[in-house]
Structure formats: C-alpha cells, structure tokens
User: What shape does this take?
Amino acid sequence: MTALLTSLALFGTAWLAHLLWWRIALPRRHTAALLLLFAIVPVAAAVLAPALPAAHLPSAAEVPGVLSLYAGAAACYLIVYTGIEQTSPTLAIVRALERAGGGGCSQENLAPLITEDLFVRPRLEALALDGLISRQAGGWALTTRGRRAARAATFLAGVFGIRENA
Amino acid sequence: MATLLLLAPALGLLANVVTQMALSRLNLSLGPVRLQFVSFALGALVALLLLAGMLSEFRIGGADKAGYLIEHLLIYACFGFCFFNVISANVSSLRVRIVKELLAQDPAPMADAALQARYSAREMLLARLARLEAGGQIENRGGRYYLRKRGIAMIGGLFDALRRLLLKA
Assistant: This one.
C-alpha cells in the first residue's frame, strides 16, 4: 500500500504546486511549465526522502512502480489540461445541448459556438507557441519539430487505419 | 519481485495496441470510440489476469496485495488513456490535422485564406455533430439535436470547473 500512497502523494503534491503557481502568476507556456513542475517534484521527493522514517517510504523494488504511476498520471493530466486550456468544440456543443434540455438545439443555435476566432486561431497560436509551426511570407509552415510531429501522426494514422474527421 | 508486476500493465497495454490495430483493419460497424473502448477493456483484462496470477505467488498481506493490484491497474489505465488520446487526436484534433496538412505541402507555407477555407467553422460543427451522433451521445430529431448521454456533459462540467479554478476564466 505504501507504493500506491507514495505515487498518489507525489501527484497530489505536484497538482497543488501547479494550482498555487497558476493562481499566483500564470506562466506564458503552460505545457512547458507543467512538464518542469512534474519533473521537479519526484527529484525534490528523492532529496527529502532520507529525512523521512523508512516505514513510510517505498522499497527500492517498488520505486519503478511508484514512478510509473506518477509518470502515467502526469501524462494523463497533461492531456486533460489541453482541454482545460482551450475549450474543445465537442464539449462546447455538449454543454450547450445540456443547457437546452428538452428544447434541443438546431445547427443555427450551435453555430456561434464554433467560430474561427474561438477555435482555429487559438490552435494556430498554440502550435506556434509550442514551436511546431512558424509564420512566414505566404502563411504558416512547419518547423523541423513540427515536421517530426506531423510524420509521427501520419505514421500512427497508417498503422491504426485512422480516418480523420476533425 | 514488486518490479516484475510492471509486466502486467505493460503486456496489457501491448494487448490494447495490438487489438486496436487488428480491429481497425476489420472494417467493423463500431465507431472509432467504441473500438477503442473494446481494445482498452481487453488490455485491462489481460493486465488484471496477469496481476492476479503474479500476486497469488506473493507472501504478503491482503492490504498490500490490494495496494499493488490498484497501483498496477492504475498504471495500465493511465497509459491506456494516453493511447486512447493519441488515437483520438489523430481522428479529431484540429491541431494534428493542421500539421498533417502542412506536411502535405511542406515546405511551401499555407496561406491564412487556405486554412480558413479548409477549416471552416461549419464543417467542424457538422463533423463533430456526426461523430457525437455515431457514438450515441446525441440524437437528431426533426433537425434539432438532443443530449442522450449525460456522461460527456459531466466531463464538460468538470473541465469548466477546473478552468475557473486554474485560469480564473
């Protein structure tokens, strides 16, 4: 049980630190800041561990499991955070339908929820901020990093037979 | 010994990935989300069976066995969720679609007008409505859309709450 509780405690500590940081001063690059925070917390825990009673610490054989769960939870949170940082069109539609209740919504009712200003432009800006695309004369183009990401996505689509319908 | 337990979520994830690859080629009538649920569930079953088998050999108390079981099922669930989203992003993420489109004409840049034409708000709306209908989350009656399943709305509510808490938005 110690290993499970240690993983949960590590993730809980990281999340509280994230909440405090964001409430005090929102970072410009959210994803990079979260990655830094999630990396620092287990390192800080390793430094502080000798000061804690051994009975409260996981054994050496349990550490890989602790770090695996922590890393998995952190990865999940990073994915979830993209939906927090930028509203998903799908969730915006669903929330509107929930509010409409028995009256439902027509396509015209839902159209104002999905506009270029609300969805396309922020995503272009996010891609640029993350260094995947850049503004050039003539429009937007991939950076070297963006090319790698695009090739990885294309490869996955081929392997898993994915047909997109964004 | 505890380290060996990591084999269970690892093999469960492998089963998940292989099942997803196999099912995606069978041209089944399942939508992409349901297909992913099937592969996730199969992977979870593999992980659970392996964990049960390995833990039965451990000479430890029931509470510790329960702790290891939960911990390693959560490890599977976390990485399974990540895999689920990697596939979903390829299906529906606008950002992924944009970078793939830019790759198709790389290194030539894409003008704003061309981007606007390809990613029109109306097409995005229709695509998402079609996907939600196919997944059974909403239904179309007489040209109006209605929510069928509350689960996804609850997720939306949770996201809104976290946005207010973290981003004060």
